[in-house]
């Protein structure tokens, strides 16, 4: 990962996620692209064209001045956490965030998007905000979502939910590169349901293949996948959850389950979503 994109609205949630974005950039020796997108208001078609132009110019200038004021604050956050050596590029662009994200990911050849998520906005007070849910669904690159309450204190333990497929092996290789930078243990967890039950020989072949890596394997027998994953995060003190987005319904179910009311630990755990290729 050489280029990481970080959209921000300069909120407390975004500034918290910035620390993760900087740490990930440091880990991967990557450049961080800091993006602020803003939308123009819709003005009545009957309004005076000259007045409309003046209003738009005023809004653009105001956004530029705000952006200019925020850049030093972002640099201060980096300096405070001894991350001011991480190269940063700043982008200010008008338009819908999701549209700009897709455009910038393609234009800049971005490898990873890091986003802060606020549990009190977007999908009816659920963990993933609407912007992050859209990014995970529509972008072709991995998305790292940072919950508002997450606190960066190193990454020692990474959970990877796996079905032991060939695609998962591709993803695991990418996870290992991140894990080595943080000196973290990767904990592969498979929830064996009546529908998804992997042959023991396949699991043993994975163990043999990665015997020299800092990886542990866990098989959990349960038909309640999301509950089992949440409990695993809790019992294993997971710092980062990695999942392959196989289908939208599973991913949404994972984060909108009623279990969120019973198990709160995962509200502090960042989630890195890969796409099945």
TrEMBL record:
Residues of the UspA domain: 1-146
Gene3D superfamilies: HUPs
InterPro entries: Rossmann-like_a/b/a_fold (IPR014729), Universal_stress_UspA (IPR006015), UspA (IPR006016)
Similarity remark: Belongs to the universal stress protein A family.
Name listed for the protein in its UniProt record: Nucleotide-binding universal stress protein, UspA family
Organism this protein belongs to: Myroides phaeus
Lineage, opening ranks: Bacteria, Pseudomonadati, Bacteroidota, Flavobacteriia, Flavobacteriales
